[in-house]
Amino acid sequence: MSLLSNLAKTADETINNEKDTVGGGGVLDSALYPATIDIAYLEKKQSGALFLNVHLKTDDGRMHREGLCIASGDAKGNKSYYEKNGQRFFLPGFNHASSMALLSAGKELAEMDTEKKTIKLYNFDAGKEMPQDVDMVTDLVGQRIIVGLQKQIVDKRQKNDQTGTYEATGETREVNEIDKVFRERDRLTTAEVRAGAEEATFYATWDAKWTGQVRNKASAANDGNGNGVAGVPKAGGSTKPKSSLFS
Fold first, then answer.
1. How far apart are CA 226 and CA 219, in angstroms?
2. 107 CB contacts (<8 Å, ≥6 apart)?
3. Count of other CB atoms within 10 angstroms of residue 217
4. Are 186 and 197 in contact (CB under 8 A)?
5. Which of 121, 115, 120, 116 is nearest to 139 (CA)?
6. Chain center to CA of 28
7. How far apart are CA 178 and CA 98, in angstroms?
8. The pTM is what?
9. Tens digits of per-residue pLDDT, 3-48?
10. Which of 78, 93, 125, 205 is geometrically suited to a Cys-Cys bond with 69, CB 3.0 to 4.6 A?
């Protein structure tokens, strides 16, 4: 049985689906990048959390690698959603991974099969790339998407040997993070497809908001109320999607 089979599907109308919002070698500038999914494999963390690790190759040959948390750890029930104020919302990482699946292959993430593959990945202990066996999501490999990447300023973190947790060091670094996924052929988002939109509108909205901008998510940029940190999806009614919409 695939590791993906236990994930919730976006057809679950008890969970609020993703909405279109513009939240507040080297790091790429914030922009919309047509890209090929070069690698997509699953990783089970010690905490029990499930990640989809993707390597996206842009059309100009740049590579973006990111781990998307698609299910929580054992302590939180290994769920692809969380609850807030009595409502359910998909994890941000699950939303991105699901959008990649639906907008490229036309399939729910939970419906995709995995296959054992051996690939070279960086091993931190060895300090170099080494062959590793992974659960490859073969349906995603080679698929095309447009990805809205943000350049972000984030805290540098270091493990506290006494508590075992990673804490901010007071220094910052620049990273790229996936903020939105669009279908390549028509630039539609999953929310627009579900709404039956014939023309893409959020693509231009995202472009105007984020292209060339830097999002500051470091602790010093926050006011203690969560401002400056990537927001959770806003509450709203969910629309039951149909797989045929994405075929």
1. 10
2. 101, 139, 243, 246
3. 19
4. no
5. 115
6. 17
7. 13
8. 0.79
9. 777 777 777 777 778 767 554 458 999 999 999 999 999 999 999 9
10. 93
